[in-house]
Write a structure and sequence with these properties.
- This protein is mainly α.
- About 5% of the residues are buried.
- The chain has five helices and no strands.
Length: about 100
C-alpha cells in the first residue's frame, strides 16, 4: 500500500540525501528535537578530533589518553556548540531584525 506524500514517513538518515526538503519538513512537523543530543555529540566528536589533529596531540599523548579526552570532551563541546551557539545566533538575529 502506497502512502500519499502527506502521510509518508521517511528514514531521515537516508532520505536527507535524496529528498532533503520533504525530510526536513517531516522532522519539523513530527518531532523537531529528534536526535538533537545524539547529533550534538557527533558534532562534538568531529570538533574534538579536528582540534586534536590541528594541535598534533597524537604526537604527545597516547591513544588511550586521547580516547578518554574525546569521551569526556565530545558531548560537552557538542552540546555547547549547539545550544550556546544557537542562543547566540538567535540573539544576534533578533538584534539585526529589530535594527533593520
Amino acid at each position: 500500500m502506497q502512502l500519499d506524500a502527506e502521510h509518508q514517513t521517511f528514514n531521515p538518515w537516508i532520505t536527507i540525501w535524496i529528498k532533503p526538503r520533504a525530510t526536513i519538513r517531516q522532522i519539523i512537523d513530527t518531532d523537531p528535537t529528534r536526535q538533537v543530543i545524539f547529533l550534538a555529540v557527533l558534532l562534538g566528536l568531529a570538533y574534538s578530533l579536528d582540534r586534536a589533529a590541528a594541535r598534533d596531540m597524537g604526537d604527545r599523548l597516547s591513544l588511550s589518553v586521547l580516547f578518554v579526552i574525546m569521551l569526556i570532551m565530545s558531548p560537552i563541546s557538542g552540546l555547547l556548540i549547539v545550544y550556546v551557539g544557537g542562543a547566540l545566533f538567535r540573539w544576534v538575529g533578533g538584534v539585526v531584525w529589530r535594527a533593520g
